[in-house]
Structures are given as C-alpha cells and as structure tokens.
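Support request from a user on the community tier.

User writes: "When I paste my structure tokens into the form, the page sometimes reloads and wipes my input. The last time it worked, I copied everything first. Here is what I submitted, just in case something in the input itself triggers the reload:"
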C-alpha cells in the first residue's frame, strides 16, 4: 500500500514499517519524515511516536539539534551557560520526491529548510531485508549536502556545553515497556558502558524483541553511540560528539546504520551473527 503521504515496507510479504513522508506536525517538533510503526516479523511494535516524555521523538529517522543554530531535532535548544531553552529556531525536513519506491525500500530526496532557506539537501536510501524467519534488517543511509554558498556546521548539546548529550544523526525511539530494555555491545553491557562507545554495534533487548544497531561504514563506526534506557529507550549515532562537524559548501556527509529487528531476546553471540549477516562489506 502506498500513497502520496506514506508507504509500507514489507519483508517476505509482511508489513514491517510505515514511512510517513509529509507529517502534519507543529513547527516546534521540527517536522520531518519518519518510520512508525516499525515491527518485528511477528508484529511486535518496536518504535514510539511522540511519546509523552519527548513529543519530538518520531519513530526512526534523522534528527539533528543544531545545523548552524537551527533545530532539526525538535523541542528545546541547549544554550551554553543557560540550559535547555525554548527558541523559535526550528527547521523542517521536507520530502521532495522518491527516486525509487519498492515494497522493500525506497530512495528519497529531501530538503532541510529553516528560516525560509534551504540549508541541506538529503538523499535517503532505506531497504528492508529478511535475515531469518524471526529477524530482518533495516538498512538506512543518509547523505547531507550543503547547498548554500557558505560553510555550515553541525553541532549537538555536547558541543554547546552539555556533557554526555552528543545526540544528532540517525535516531531510533524504541518501545517503552514496564522495565527498561537491556543494552549490550560486543564486549560490554549496561547503559553507562554503551553510551558514548565507539563500537561496531549496540543492542537493545526488550521483553520479546531485540534491536541491534550497527555502523555499516568506517565513518559511521567512528561516531559514538548515543544510548538511553533508564529515562527512555532510544539509540542514535552521534555526528558531533566532541566538536562541531564542518560541512563546507557543496560537500556531503554520508552515514549508514543497519538495524537488526528480531523477535525474542537475543544473546551476544546471536546479535553478532545477525550483524555479520546484515552488514555487507
């Protein structure tokens, strides 16, 4: 099923995700296309949309809190020496066109617009692939090109003075349950160890589902993971962890994250094996 506003991703004929291209959202939520709901092959939802704790968390997508001072994340902006502050600085990601639309994926062009001007143009490539009878992979690549005549830079609350808050880039708001999900990497476990780690993959394991996030390029693997479980369940990859990321005029930033979506609670060995299967060299 597909229309001008949304499309449905399918794996082995089963719907596993709905992509909303033109959501009707308040400006302060930094409107942008997103995937929700995303489900396991058995039908368990593993995303949340505008939950009460963070209304600007929109399933799976790309969200950046600071592009040359414009907020493409939603909510308040972290201001140095002032803290989280309500500002009228929100941008929007606008769907331009699909270059490709298939049941198992798409290629999309988007415009990142703020204050009436285009700052970035994005090409987003998303593909859904069956791994086993109980697991599939969401392969998500985004390429951001500075279409202005001036250099831009991408920042985060961390680069603006808030330690440990280097979010911005690919972000997945996961299912919230009575108990926080377990989190582990290839050699560590727990939120404190996983958050900020530069490691090949990080897994969230809920009551009857597991998500395994893997950097699929060398550049992506250099970005630390942003991990939350106690406050809310979410995982992202950090474009600007310690310093602002420069994007010269005409230049492009590319990142690729592959997420294994599995039924059941995977162990470390199972997670690693599925990542190897999901991430092609």
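"...and here is what came back when it finally went through:"
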């Amino acid at each position: 099923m597909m229309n001008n506003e949304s499309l449905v991703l399918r794996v082995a004929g089963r719907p596993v995700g709905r992509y909303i291209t033109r959501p009707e959202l308040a400006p302060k939520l930094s409107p942008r296309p997103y995937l929700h709901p995303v489900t396991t092959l058995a039908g368990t939802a593993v995303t949340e949309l505008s939950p009460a704790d963070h209304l600007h968390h929109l399933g799976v997508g790309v969200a950046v809190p600071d592009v040359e001072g414009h907020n493409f994340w939603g909510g308040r902006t972290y201001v140095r020496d002032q803290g989280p502050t309500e500002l009228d600085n929100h941008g929007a990601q606008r769907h331009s066109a699909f270059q490709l639309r298939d049941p198992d994926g798409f290629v999309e062009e988007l415009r990142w617009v703020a204050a009436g001007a285009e700052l970035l143009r994005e090409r987003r490539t998303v593909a859904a692939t069956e791994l086993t009878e109980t697991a599939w992979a969401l392969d998500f690549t985004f390429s951001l090109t500075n279409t202005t005549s001036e250099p831009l830079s991408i920042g985060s609350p961390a680069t603006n003075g808030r330690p440990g808050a280097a979010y911005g880039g690919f972000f997945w708001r996961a299912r919230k349950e009575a108990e926080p999900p377990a989190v582990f990497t290839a050699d560590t476990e727990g939120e404190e160890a996983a958050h900020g780690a530069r490691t090949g993959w990080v897994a969230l394991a809920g009551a009857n589902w597991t998500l395994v996030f893997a950097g699929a390029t060398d550049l992506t693997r250099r970005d630390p993971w942003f991990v939350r479980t106690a406050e809310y369940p979410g995982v992202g990859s950090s474009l600007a962890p310690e310093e602002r990321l420069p994007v010269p005029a005409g230049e492009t930033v590319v990142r690729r994250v592959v997420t294994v979506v599995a039924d059941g609670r995977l162990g470390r060995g199972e997670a690693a094996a599925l990542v190897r299967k999901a991430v092609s060299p």
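Agent notes: The reload is a front-end session timeout and is unrelated to the input. The radius of gyration is 17 Å. Helices lie at 191-194, 218-222, 268-278. Escalated to web team.
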